[in-house]
From TrEMBL:
It comes from Machaerirhynchus nigripectus. Residues 1-21 form the signal peptide. This is HAVR1 protein. The gene is Havcr1. It is found in: Membrane. The lineage of its organism: Eukaryota, Metazoa, Chordata, Craniata, Vertebrata. It holds the Pfam family V-set. GO terms for molecular function: phosphatidylserine binding.
Amino acid sequence: MLSYICLNWVLLVLFAGPTVSELVVIGEAGQDVTVPCHYSVRDRSGITSMCWGRDRCPNSKCSQPIIWTDGWRVTEQHSSRYQLKGDLQKGDVSLTIVNAREGDSGIYCCRVELPGWFNDQLMNHKVVITKARISTASPHTYTSEQTSAPGSTSEPSFTVTRTWPSVSASEAPQTASAPCGGTSDCLEVTANLQNASVSLPSQQHPEHGLYIGIGSCAALLLILILALFLT
């Protein structure tokens, strides 16, 4: 009877296996992601070996092992991106994935090898690496493009860039060397110049009429003097 109970217990342990806890860890691509794992260390004799693997924890060891430690130092390392940065002698065997990538997503097994049959501490972690968020906005350049009307003989298109500061009417220059802002602006400037050129002759010689008046008076005075002599 006792042997039957022992046999059932052994079969139950073999088929059921040790209890495995699970945890979900979410990280961001490009950042360091730490997958936690700890075991209790009472004294130096409690320090033991452990491994990390890429898959669920099997009955023994680790599937697709990526890093091993004997409890004092790292003995095997699949890649420098997998590191144990915790205090190993205090039972901190958390896995740090340096510069995580989306391909690092998956199941990770932390297996701490404890003395005795089926005493290993097992923990499966589901790691999810999301895409990196864009935190900086790139500068935008805005341009203003104008196109001439159909049938126009002017340039087909041109780009206007205005950086002139605002000035008062008294400070505005009489002539402008900058390009016109548009077809209507060029026509308006041309009309103003034509009006100014037409009105200039009348304002440049205002004394011409004065000379004509003086000459006419002198001629009349000379005619009167001649008439007096003749009479």
